[in-house]
Amino acid sequence: MPKGRPNTMNNYGVLLNELGMDETFITPLREKYLQPITALLYPDWGGACLDSHKAFVVKYSLHEDLDLSSHYDNAEVTLNVSLGKDFTEGNLYFGDFSQEPTPVPKYIEIQHVGAQGLLHRGGQIHGALPIASGERWNLIIWMRSSAIRNQLCPMCNKKPELVEAEGFGDGFTETPEDDMPETVNLC
Predict the structure, then answer these.
(1) Which DSSP symbol is given to 155?
(2) Is the dihedral of CA 128, 23, 146, 41 positive or negative?
(3) CA atoms of 18 and 69, how far apart (whole Å)
(4) Does the entry feature the keyword Ribosomal protein, yes or no (predicted)?
(5) Distance from C-alpha of 115 to C-alpha of 129, rounded to nearest angstrom
(6) Under a CB-based contact definition with an 8 Å cutoff, are residues 97 and 121 in contact?
(7) Of the candidates 129, 135, 136, 133, which has an alpha carbon nearest to the alpha carbon of residue 88?
């Protein structure tokens, strides 16, 4: 069975597309349930037109990955669901946005409770503090909008040069130059 790393920072976990879960579970979850919420919460970041994703489960335990250092995601919007197990400590923390870093970043801590999820902008700097005991498993879904990222790559802040890729690739697609996402007026 194929075994890719979930991302460049986590060593333990599984890519859900390798288990055949993209079309049967993750895509319907994104399209039917998450996108109506992200359209309201993140209209300026492609929340209404999230057309691809990368989904994986990561594991934190005492003799493996304990924490996750500060980073931002290769996504417009991220869903992070604590799948639980018994663990102590390991809060999430959030800081500035990658486009607006400050010299002395300020962070807020969020307790990550089992069976609860958290939506956030992928470009928000965040991380996970070390767990003190037990194991924590998290479902992570990086949701992407080709209409947004075809204009500006979220990782390098440049106009992307597209290359062939399998599956969703990194969420870039061939779309007309003027195809921008619609926004939702909340006022």
Answers:
(1) T
(2) negative
(3) 26
(4) no
(5) 18
(6) yes
(7) 133
Tokens of 48: 């209404």
Residue 22 sits at φ, ψ, to 5 deg, of -65, -60
| Alpha carbon 44 to chain centroid, angstroms | 17
Distance CA 40, CA 42 (A): 6
- CA-CA distance, 112 to 94, in Å (whole number)? 12
Residue 91 CA to residue 96 CA, distance in Å, equals 17
Do the Cβ atoms of 123 and 152 come closer than 8 Å? no
User: What tens digit of pLDDT does each residue of 54-101 get?
Assistant: 999 999 999 898 888 888 898 999 999 999 888 999 999 998 776 565
Q: Tokens in use for 98?
A: 């990658």
